[in-house]
Specification:
The protein has 321 residues and is α/β, with parallel strands linked by helices. The protein is 46% helix and 12% strand.
C-alpha cells in the first residue's frame, strides 16, 4: 500500500454515551446525528476508502456538572475506545476523554488512558463550564501532558455566552469556530503553549477563525499589551507547531490560506463523522484527493503522512505486509 489515509476527527456515539448525554435534547452542535453503530462506522470507512480512524467523543463531553459521574463516564468511554482499538487496530485509534474541569479526575484518566489502555492521545473540549483551556487552574493537566509529550485533540463545545444561543442558529455555524479560536488565544497568551513545547495540539475545523485572524495576533503582539511576551514570543512562531484538521474546512480557499499562514506540513484530514451527511464528508475527501491547490507531497501529508508523524504506530501500518 502506498500510503495510509487517516481520519483524525472521527466521533463514536456508543449507546451508553448517547443515553448519558442526550436526555434533555442536548444535541451536539444543534445537529442531530443518525443513530451510531460500530458496524455502520466501519462501513462508512470502507465506502469512503479511509484506512484508519482515530475515534473520540464529541460534545458535550463527559462532564455534565458532577465530578464523580464525569469520572465514571470518562472511564467507561475510554474503555470502550480501548476495546475498539484493540479489536481492530488496523482500522481504529482513539483519543481518551478527560472529565474537565475536574483536575484530579483528569489526571487520573490521563494515567489510565496512557499507562493501562494505551490510547493514542487525549481529547479535550475548548472550555469546561466556561473555563477555557489555558486557564491557570488547568496548569497541572498541561504539565502532565507535556511530561508525556501527548497528542491533544481540541474540540469545540457550546459557547458559555448565553447571547450566542439567542440567534436561532446551530452552534456549529459560528460558535464552534469562535470557541476554538478563544481556546487557542487563551493557550497562547496564558503562555501554556510555551510551557508545553512537546505537546502536539490538534485543532479541528482548521482552527476555527485563527488562520484568518493570525495577522491580527501579530498586531496585538507588536503592541505588547498582554503581559508575558518575553517568555511567550510571537504567535507567528507558535503557528507552525500546531496541527489543524480539514473537517468542514477542505475548500480551496481554506487550503490556500493554511498554506500561507501556517504551512501545510501540520494539516491533517478529518471528517467529523457522523455529524455531516456522509455525502458531504466523502465529498470533502474527494476534493482533497483531486484539488489542484495541493501538490502530491502535500496531499499525501494531509491524507495520512502528518497523522502518522503524530501517532507513530500508524507508520507501522503503512509498511506493506
Amino acid at each position: 500500500r502506498m500510503s495510509l489515509s487517516v481520519d483524525l476527527h472521527h466521533h463514536v456515539i456508543p449507546e451508553f454515551y448517547w443515553d448519558a448525554t442526550n436526555e434533555d435534547g442536548n444535541v451536539a452542535g444543534g445537529i442531530n446525528p443518525p443513530r451510531w453503530s460500530l458496524d455502520g462506522a466501519i462501513a462508512y470507512l470502507d465506502e469512503a476508502r479511509i484506512d484508519v480512524a482515530i475515534a473520540s467523543i464529541s460534545t458535550p463531553g463527559v462532564h455534565l456538572g458532577d465530578d464523580a459521574a464525569a469520572g465514571i463516564l470518562a472511564r467507561r468511554v475510554n474503555e470502550y475506545l480501548a476495546d475498539i482499538k484493540r479489536d481492530r487496530p488496523d482500522r481504529f485509534g482513539a483519543f481518551a476523554a478527560l472529565p474537565l474541569p475536574d483536575v484530579e479526575g483528569s489526571l487520573d484518566q490521563i494515567a489510565y488512558a496512557f499507562d493501562v489502555l494505551e490510547l493514542d492521545g487525549v481529547s479535550v473540549m475548548t472550555n469546561a463550564g466556561g473555563s477555557y483551556l489555558g486557564d491557570s487552574r488547568f496548569d497541572p493537566i498541561f504539565a502532565e501532558l507535556q511530561r508525556r509529550a501527548a497528542v491533544v485533540f481540541v474540540h469545540p463545545i457550546a459557547s458559555p455566552d448565553p447571547i450566542a444561543h439567542t440567534l436561532g442558529l446551530p452552534d456549529t455555524l459560528l460558535d464552534y469556530p469562535v470557541d476554538t479560536s478563544r481556546a487557542i488565544a487563551k493557550l497562547h497568551y496564558s503562555n501554556t503553549f510555551t510551557r508545553t513545547p512537546d505537546v502536539k495540539y490538534v485543532f479541528v475545523h482548521a482552527g476555527g477563525t485563527i488562520p484568518y485572524l493570525a495577522s491580527r495576533f501579530a498586531i496585538v503582539d507588536q503592541m505588547d499589551v498582554i503581559p508575558g511576551a518575553q517568555e511567550r514570543g510571537a504567535f507567528a512562531d507558535v503557528l507552525p507547531r500546531l496541527y489543524w484538521d480539514t473537517a468542514s474546512a477542505f475548500s480551496d480557499p481554506v487550503l490556500h490560506m493554511l498554506r500561507s499562514v501556517t504551512g501545510l506540513d501540520n494539516v491533517v484530514f478529518g471528517t467529523d463523522y457522523p455529524y455531516p451527511h456522509d455525502a458531504i464528508s466523502i465529498g470533502g475527501l474527494r476534493q482533497l484527493k483531486g484539488t489542484a491547490e495541493l501538490d502530491d507531497r502535500e496531499r499525501r501529508g494531509i491524507l495520512g503522512g502528518s497523522a502518522a508523524r503524530l501517532i507513530p504506530r500508524l507508520a507501522r501500518l503503512e509498511s506493506p505486509l
